[in-house]
Design brief:
Number of helices: 17
Structural class: mainly alpha
Helix content: over 70%
Radius of gyration: 21 Å
Strand order of the largest sheet: 1-2
Largest sheet: 2 strands, antiparallel
Oligomer: single chain
Number of strands: 2
Distance between the termini: 39 Å
Order of helices and strands: EEHHHHHHHHHHHHHHHHH
């Protein structure tokens, strides 16, 4: 489908043609755009509230590192095969199993996460408009307006996301640095010691788990973006240079601003230091670049979940986005920690099973993939067993344990109860 000169991406589950693959530089911007957002600053604030400054930064870095590792392992599958996560998993779980376990869970997860970010955006925009310009805008109105803008961007597809991120990411990084420097000049560094946490309420393991949860959905569904990469090397370069620098910088700024200024939101800080226009700019761009991806990937999973024709990605994306906006209006932000922890916990074994199936059983060879239209009993059983085992483990990172357990359990079951997922 086309509108004017720019095509609207229609396909969802089919292989991305070679001529439509992007350079790693283009995808660096998309990866970075995902982690430069108001919730990333919020993560820094949450860590700063429960841990000393240095520990909070370390927890954030380790959490992002875990996201990066999973993004690389799962993302390379997308580059190899040129298809999204839910299509890849038809080998591991069967098409029916994928609809039941994978795409349905990720659809719900991404609808909710889209709603969370719309909620954050709506509250931030209304607060900033009132503080900076004296204009009172209802949060519901802000959420609906900006949520629908994000939906429209997601409906257009990857080319639009890439173009938006290419312009926005460098500007966002520049504004973030300017805002942080000005905040330190005006408020000084006294808050770093005066507001330091003396008695931590969050352990390092809990902090790492919290950081991992915030962006785990992007790791679990990494192939939705990396299917546009030309090869494995480009996938590694775009993820490493896109996720880590941008994610760490954003989280660290959130920690520092919370400690020094008492406000984690860089957009509000910009208003406080006399630059409200830049504050609005960073808030809007940060949310557009991040949350549009959530609606986009949610649309892919919705196509699989409801067994829609492949060319119905646009309609599925629109519905996913609208449902997310509804959740935002209902105040899903109030349940952010519980929501993120449990959706991550449920998705972790799926990721572990998929890694074991592709890299160990399939030996990392795209040609070994053997999609199953029905049920892959081994993959489904391994996921369900892993969820039970992971729930009983009382050590380690709660919402990451399932990745390791799923990996091990699948290999054990595959040895004694071989599936037809791979044609070795």
């Amino acid at each position: 489908m086309t509108n004017g000169k720019k095509p609207i991406e229609a396909f969802a589950l089919s292989r991305v043609p070679r001529e439509q693959r992007k350079s790693w530089v283009d995808m660096v911007m998309v990866q970075a755009g995902m982690v430069i957002c108001i919730p990333a600053f919020l993560l820094g604030s949450m860590l700063a509230e429960g841990m000393p400054t240095l520990q909070a930064m370390v927890a954030g870095v380790i959490g992002y590192g875990m996201v990066l590792v999973l993004t690389l392992i799962l993302g390379i599958q997308g580059a190899d095969l040129g298809i999204p996560t839910c299509a890849i998993s038809t080998s591991t779980f069967g098409r029916k199993g994928t609809r039941l376990l994978v795409s349905s869970l990720f659809t719900v997860s991404l609808v909710g996460f889209f709603g969370l970010q719309v909620n954050v955006c709506g509250e931030a925009f209304s607060t900033l408009a009132l503080a900076a310009f004296g204009v009172e805008i209802p949060v519901v109105a802000s959420s609906i307006f900006w949520g629908m803008v994000m939906v429209v961007i997601a409906v257009w597809g990857m080319e639009t996301l890439k173009n938006l991120d290419t312009i926005s990411v460098p500007l966002l990084l520049l504004i973030m640095i300017i805002g942080t420097v000005m905040a330190f000049r005006i408020y000084g560094t006294a808050g770093l010691s005066a507001n330091e946490v003396e008695t931590p309420t969050m352990t390092m393991i809990e902090g790492i788990g919290t950081a991992f949860s915030f962006f785990s959905a992007s790791a679990f569904t990494a192939a939705d973006l990396t299917r546009f990469q030309r090869n494995r090397r480009d996938t590694v370069r775009s993820a490493v240079w896109g996720l880590m620098p941008a994610g760490i910088i954003t989280c660290v700024i959130g920690v520092l601003l919370s400690r020094v200024v008492g406000v984690y939101d860089i957009s509000q800080v910009m208003a406080m230091v006399g630059l409200p226009i830049l504050g609005l700019t960073i808030m809007i761009l940060a949310q557009l670049t991040t949350n549009s991806v959530n609606a986009y990937t949610g649309g892919l999973d919705a196509v699989m979940t409801f067994n829609l024709p492949d060319n119905r990605r646009r309609e599925a994306t629109f519905v996913v986005g609208v449902l997310g906006v509804v959740l935002a209006v209902l105040g899903i932000l109030d349940f952010i920690e519980v929501y993120l922890n449990w959706t991550t916990f449920l998705g972790a074994p799926i990721a572990g099973v998929m890694i074991a199936d592709y890299w160990i059983v399939g030996r990392g060879k795209p040609a070994s993939r053997h999609p199953n239209d029905g049920w892959n009993r081994t993959g489904i059983a391994a996921t369900l067993i892993s969820l039970v085992i992971a729930l009983m483990i009382l050590f380690g990172v709660f919402n990451f344990n399932g990745v390791i357990v799923g990996f091990i359990v699948y290999l054990i079951l595959e040895h004694f109860w071989p599936s037809e997922s791979r044609n070795n």
